């Protein structure tokens, strides 16, 4: 039988992040030396008390409420109040199997069009395509920290002239590692044009300056927030996320709940109990340490990679940065990444996966190829860590960056 797949889905391919992860694992199994700067996964262990809570709750076999455990939703509500200064009451929060699923359901339910700025995370556009929502792109620049200006956003909104529009904002940002500095101005435009915002706050707690600002503070009535345990808590494989909506838009959560109930039913029970501990417990020390390691490793990569022909913005959060390789040798950033992997063993993702034109020689580099559990045993508090500590605990990062930097000298 032919044409089993819907025409609208035939152009989609498996997500580039998961593909590069599996490709690297395969090369390693074949005995190749690979520097895994492609996939973006926390290198740190889940805090022990949270793991113990999961073990203690392994016997929980009953289905939980569709929207998630009330206690967990209350904890997430308190967490959001603390972080954003805005109250998202527990009844406006939905627990989901990863925030990725929450975003997908949002696209499926949403009757409107989507604005993305390049760079945007790999899955936003494919998810919009699955939900059959038209995507409009805004190009950004390194000078503007890889975020759109309020003027650009306003121009875009006016040119679309559509009633329901949503802009997805992710700060700290995957793939650029930068932080949005003009939240207030963006919020003003959104308010003026009734533009909805989905603030993807999965990297909130990996903000290097430690002062997180959420756009919901400036535009509480129109901001959805998604987040979860994957990044700050090192629990990507546990698949626990959330979606929070403002009071005025709580009816929209009803549609997401219906879709959830008809697909995954409810998130797995033991992980929800463990997540209560993750949101209620005091993990300030763990967060401070992991953030200082990431900040130091990110800074090391930035310092040692940037050159006359590699441009980079200094990382401000998350665990990525976006080097641009100035050259005329390659036709596409995919060809550039494939050649680099072949010739040096360094795996990265081409920025064409993040909304850039394929001829722009930008890549995404995730600097998490180190053993986070070992690194946490060092004295990692306080100041930026010196190179010796990084050489000891992140040898693959150090070696891979050296190889990449030597390779780029011959461009
Ligand atoms: N948003 C961004 C920007 C991400 O990098 C990720 C990484 N997986 C997600 C959302 C989804 O995270 P999760 O589904 O694990 O909550
Ligand atoms: N967020 C990770 C990345 O961008 C991967 C996880 C995923 O794509 O679900 O590499």
Instruction: State Rg.
Output: 21 Å
CATH homologous group name of the largest domain = Type I PLP-dependent aspartate aminotransferase-like (Major domain)
Distance between the termini: 49 Å
CATH topological fold name of the largest domain: Aspartate Aminotransferase, domain 2
Q: N-to-C SSE series?
A: HEHHEHEHEHEHEEEHHHEEEHEEEHHH
- Average of pLDDT: 96
Strand content: 5-15%
Number of helices: 14
Are any ligands bound, and if so which? 4'-deoxy-4'-aminopyridoxal-5'-phosphate, glutamic acid
Fraction in helix: 25-40%
Major sheet description? 7 strands, mixed
CATH-defined architecture of the largest domain = 3-Layer(aba) Sandwich
Shape assignment: globular
Write up what this structure looks like.
- The chain has 411 residues and is α/β, with parallel strands linked by helices.
- It has two domains: 6-45 and 284-408, Aspartate Aminotransferase, domain 1, CATH 3.90.1150; 48-280, 3-Layer(aba) Sandwich (Aspartate Aminotransferase, domain 2).
- It is 39% helix and 13% strand.
- The chain has 14 helices and 14 strands.
- The protein has helices at residues 16-29, 48-56, 70-84, 99-109, 124-130, 150-160, 183-193, 250-261, 269-280, 284-305, 333-344, 372-375, 387-393, 395-409; strands at 35-36, 93-96, 113-118, 135-139, 165-170, 196-200, 223-228, 241-244, 310-311, 320-321, 324-325, 346-347, 349-350, 363-366.
- The radius of gyration is 21 Å and the shape is globular.
- The mean pLDDT is 96.
- The structure holds 4'-deoxy-4'-aminopyridoxal-5'-phosphate and glutamic acid.
- 4'-deoxy-4'-aminopyridoxal-5'-phosphate (PMP) is lined by residues 40, 98-100, 121, 170, 174, 200, 202, 228, 230, 236, 241.
């Amino acid at each position: 039988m032919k044409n089993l797949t819907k025409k609208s889905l035939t152009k989609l391919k498996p997500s580039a992040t998961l593909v590069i992860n599996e490709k690297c694992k395969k090369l390693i199994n074949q005995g190749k030396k690979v520097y895994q700067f492609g996939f973006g996964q926390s290198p740190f262990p889940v805090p022990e008390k949270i793991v113990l809570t999961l073990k203690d709750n392994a016997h929980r076999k009953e289905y939980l409420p569709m929207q998630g455990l009330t206690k967990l939703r209350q904890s997430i509500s308190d967490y959001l109040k603390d972080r954003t200064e805005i109250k998202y009451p527990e009844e406006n929060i939905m627990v989901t199997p990863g925030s990725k699923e929450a975003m997908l359901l949002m696209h499926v339910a949403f009757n409107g069009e989507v604005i993305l700025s390049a760079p945007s995370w790999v899955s936003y556009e494919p998810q919009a395509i699955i939900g059959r929502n038209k995507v409009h792109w805004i190009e950004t620049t390194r000078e503007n920290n890889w975020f759109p200006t309020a003027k650009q956003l306003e121009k875009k909104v006016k040119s679309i002239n559509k009633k329901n529009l949503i802009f997805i904002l992710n700060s700290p940002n995957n793939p650029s590692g930068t932080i949005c500095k003009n939240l207030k101005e963006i919020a003003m435009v959104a308010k003026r044009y009734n533009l909805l915002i989905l603030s993807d706050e999965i990297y909130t707690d990996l903000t290097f300056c430690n002062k997180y600002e959420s756009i919901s503070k400036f535009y509480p009535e129109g901001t959805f927030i998604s987040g979860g345990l994957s990044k700050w808590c090192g629990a990507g494989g546990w698949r626990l996320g959330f979606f929070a909506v403002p009071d005025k838009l709580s009816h929209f959560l009803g549609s997401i709940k219906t879709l959830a109930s008809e697909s995954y039913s409810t998130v797995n029970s033991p992980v929800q109990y463990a997540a209560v501990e993750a949101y209620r417990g005091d993990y300030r020390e763990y967060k401070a340490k992991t953030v200082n390691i990431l900040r130091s490793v990110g800074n090391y990569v930035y310092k040692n990679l940037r050159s006359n022909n590699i441009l980079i913005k200094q990382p401000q959060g998350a665990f990525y940065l976006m080097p641009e390789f100035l050259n005329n040798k390659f036709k596409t950033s995919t060809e550039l990444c494939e050649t680099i992997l072949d010739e040096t063993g360094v795996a990265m993702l081409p920025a064409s996966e993040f909304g850039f034109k394929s001829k722009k020689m930008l890549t995404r580099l995730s600097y998490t190829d180190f053993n986070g559990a070992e690194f946490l045993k060092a004295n990692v508090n306080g100041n930026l860590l010196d190179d010796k500590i990084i050489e000891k605990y992140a040898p693959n990062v150090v070696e891979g960056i050296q190889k990449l930097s030597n390779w780029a000298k011959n461009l």
